[in-house]
Write a structure and sequence with these properties.
alpha/beta; four-stranded parallel sheet; 4 helices; globular
């Protein structure tokens, strides 16, 4: 796959392939910005009480972008994981494996939703990891997402 712009990088993980896994390292996972609500620390912008919190957008794609926006500030998310929102098994299996390096955002197979693209632009991660094969997330969508990666800004 060719990146959408020079220097951009996308890593494609196909859960159906027999290829080996990917490893990531970091000294410490980034800490999200938080505010205190009646003694409970919640990400800024979260709606709820001390008993429950609800993150929501107009659809699953906007919700994934909203969760990311409330949990990650630009420069903190080294990696954004992009998975299908149409068949979310890949996203579910990736969720716990992000190693605190960045959010999981959902996409359509053949279209990068505007809210998700705006979140990729806001975060400017070092890398976009696309979870699932081309049947889940098309190469064109993977390339478009990768165009928002800024590997030159990342050190380590």
């Amino acid at each position: 796959m060719t990146p959408g712009r020079a220097g951009a990088l996308a890593v494609v993980l196909s859960l159906a392939s027999a290829a080996g896994g990917a490893a990531a390292s970091a000294s410490q996972p980034p800490a999200p910005a938080v505010r205190s609500v009646e003694g409970l620390a919640l990400p800024s912008g979260a709606v709820g009480t001390t008993a429950s919190v609800r993150y929501a957008g107009a659809d699953r794609y906007e919700t994934s972008a909203e969760v990311s926006r409330l949990s990650w500030t630009p420069g903190e998310a080294a990696v954004v994981h992009l998975a299908s929102g149409e068949a979310p098994a890949d996203a579910l299996s990736m969720g716990a494996s992000t190693l605190g390096l960045g959010p999981v955002l959902l996409t359509r197979r053949d279209e990068l939703p505007p809210a998700v693209e705006a979140e990729l632009e806001r975060l400017a991660p070092c890398m976009v990891i696309v979870v699932g094969g081309a049947a889940a997330v098309s190469d064109a969508v993977a390339e478009r997402a990768a165009a928002h990666a800024r590997p030159e800004a990342c050190t380590g």
